[in-house]
Amino acid sequence: MQWGMQNRLSRIISPKTGHCVMLAMDHGYFGNIPGTLKCFDDLKPLFEYADALMLTRGMLRSCVSAEIDKPIVLRVSAGASMLKELSNEEINVAIDDAIRLNVSAITCSIFVGSEYEKQTIMNLSKLINFGEQYGIPVLAVTAVGREMARDARYLGMASRLAAEMGTHFVKTYYCENFEEVIRVTPIPVVIAGGKKIPERDALQMAKNAINEGAVGVDMGRNIFLSDSPIGMIKAVREIVHNNASVDEAYEIYKQGPKGL
Fold first, then answer.
1. Residue pair 191/174 in contact by the 8 Å Cβ criterion
2. Residue 80, Cβ neighbours under 10 Å: how many?
């Protein structure tokens, strides 16, 4: 990697621990607006506990202060809403705009096995070319759509495909036999938080993923839809960066304030 790319990536994945906690806030780009949040500025109290924020440029400009000292992972793909075939996506942000926004990484989804698989892989390839030209790391998200499997064989294939294209790190789902996904993927792997599940289950998932080789987690709904979002993100941090047990982390969550 060139120096600028290494520097940007090191802002997201801590050189001290080799891990990261990303706060996912990019759900609204396809119409899945979580909870009753009007604007992600409501999540501001969580920002200090995240290593990086993942969101779209509209929400970045509208809801995040330019004074923030957190790396931004910018989603630059869009297309169909959740009422249509989600894989029908294209790149919707010019690389010039990503540079003007001073982001630390750019990201899009690939839908392996879907109707528009080739299109999404070419989207990723375009981003990788941009990234190599301007020194910006690329995160590939192995989206699963409505019908795709979430087993190690499928997620391993999708993650390996992203690595073969030249992406710098990949976000995928945790699954049974997750070590197999890690084994076939020669780049850092971050797990998605996915749908809201009970807090202890989400913490157990994070612990399992880190123990089995993931470098971090990118959680959204399992943090900001918790009854104690600050307690939850603190608990996740303790697991990811300090190797806390699930019991220890769960106590941190329970001691957190209710609401934001």
1. yes
2. 14
Which spans in 141-198 are helix H?
152-165, 178-184
The structural domains of the chain, ordered by start, are 3-196 (3.20.20.70)
**Any idea which residue has 């990086």 for tokens?**
52
pTM value?
Answer: 0.92
Of the residues 16, 44, 126, 171, which is catalytic?
Answer: 171
Q: Which residues contact 63 (CB under 8 A, 6 or more apart)?
A: 39, 40, 41
Backbone angles phi, psi at 148, to 5 degrees: -75, 150
Measured distance CA(232)–CA(185) in Å, rounded = 29
- List helix spans (H) across 167-215: 178-184, 199-211
Instruction: List CB contacts of 100: < 8 A, sequence separation 6 or more.
Output: none
Beta strands in 27-133 (DSSP E): 52-56, 72-75, 77-79, 89-91, 105-110
Asked if 234 is an active-site residue, the reply is no
Give the separation between CA 32 and CA 57, rounded to whole angstroms. 16
Q: Which two tokens stand for residue 200?
A: 């202890």
Q: Which of 69, 29, 31, 73 is nearest to 54 (CA)?
A: 73
What are the phi and psi torsion angles at 100 (to 5°)? -60, -30
Question: pLDDT digit string (tens) for 168-223?
Answer: 999 999 999 999 999 999 999 999 998 899 999 999 999 999 999 999 999 998 99
- A 10 A CB-CB count for 65 gives 8
